[in-house]
Amino acid sequence: MKPGPLMLDLVGTTLMPDERKLIQHPGVGGLIFFSRNFESKPQLLELVAEIKALRPSLLLAVDQEGGRVQRLQDGFTRIPPMQAFGRFYEERPSEAVELAKECAWLMAAEVLACGIDFSFAPVLDVDDRHCKVIANRAFSPKPASVAALGKAFIEGMREAGMASTGKHFPGHGAVKGDSHLELPVDQREFVEVMAHDGASFQALMPNGMDAVMPAHILFPKVDSQPVGFSQHWLQKVLRTQLGFQGVIFSDDLSMAGAVGAGTYGQRAALALQAGCDMVLACNNRDGALEVLAWLEENEPEPSDKLSSMLASKTQSWSELKNSKRWLAIVPKLKALGDQYLASTINDKKKESS
């Protein structure tokens, strides 16, 4: 059976009785884990095993980007913000590219060892500090640097057995607003957007990017709908002009940037009709249930693309921690993180002096 078009979340660290029933609903095709769902690796492994016993084909996801967006921490390698790789790239590009690839392999291997299929990564926004919700989550303010490091990151994920998701198409780095809190508006023309922010996505689509997550941003000079609800952006631009054949995930329908699309059912309808293969409804169980009610009433055809996001291979934690590759990468990432932290502190001292 094809995965259903809804990805939702769980309340805590164990499955509640109603959640056991909920995840077996045919409209549910995926679960995303947050920090509140994790207290230890043994607990997470037990939770994942219980979920898979109920729904073996359910897509399991997490945001394990690194930096301030790393949901799984205790017992996992701390991953530096992606901006650390961008700064390293300016000094020693070939070494930075190799380390980004190794970091992605490690991140993916650790997540896969817990039975989770994929992390929503990499961030391909072009930014350094302009957009507060992106900032150091992005590799660089330079499109070419983002493309080079993003390509390496995707390659590392693929080697571990994980599919990649480039976000947030066509780019969230040029607006100051946080789409979790508002609908950002970008007044640039299409050509300017794609030449700068969209360049990394265009470069990586022929190079193995498996999925895309569009931004909750309105480009009024391009279309009247925010990107994630726009047939123009997702079908004409992404599918037709750019030739992308992979999975399209909506960003979270609970974000303020999605509120203007109407009720949760209306948001899901717009996103799926625009071209999304799966919609996310997180941190609002009533909203997720609204989406399921809409799915029951309308019965949209499930996407045949979603199964491509399942893990293609994995290894156990014991195998991973005994591997020479894992042992070699951990200290390198710590050194990069320490260097980045020191440079950030120095930058703040200069700004305040």
Which assembly state applies to the chains in this document? single chain
Spatial order of strands in the largest sheet: 6-3-2-1-10-9-8-7
CATH architecture: Alpha-Beta Barrel
**What is the averaged pLDDT score?**
94
Q: How large, in whole angstroms, is the Cα Rg? A: 19 Å
Name the CATH homologous superfamily. Glycoside hydrolase, family 3, N-terminal domain
CATH topology: TIM Barrel
The succession of helices and strands, N to C, reads EHEHEEEHHEHEHHEHEHEHHH
Number of domains: 1
Q: What percent of residues are in strands?
A: 5-15%
- Helix tally equals 12
Separation of termini? 61 Å
Shape estimate = globular
Largest sheet features: 8 strands, parallel
Number of strands: 10
Tell me what you see in this structure.
The chain is α/β, with parallel strands linked by helices. Helices cover 43% and strands 11% of the residues. The protein has helices spanning 17-22, 41-54, 82-91, 93-112, 143-160, 190-196, 199-204, 231-241, 264-274, 285-298, 317-321, 324-352, and strands at 6-8, 28-33, 59-62, 64-66, 69-70, 118-119, 165-169, 211-214, 247-252, 278-280. The strands form 2 sheets. An 8-stranded parallel β-sheet has the order 6-3-2-1-10-9-8-7, with helices on one face. Helix 1 (17-22) links the parallel strand 1 (6-8) and strand 2 (28-33). Helix 3 (82-91) runs antiparallel to helix 4 (93-112), helix 4 (93-112) packs parallel to helix 5 (143-160) and helix 9 crosses helix 10.
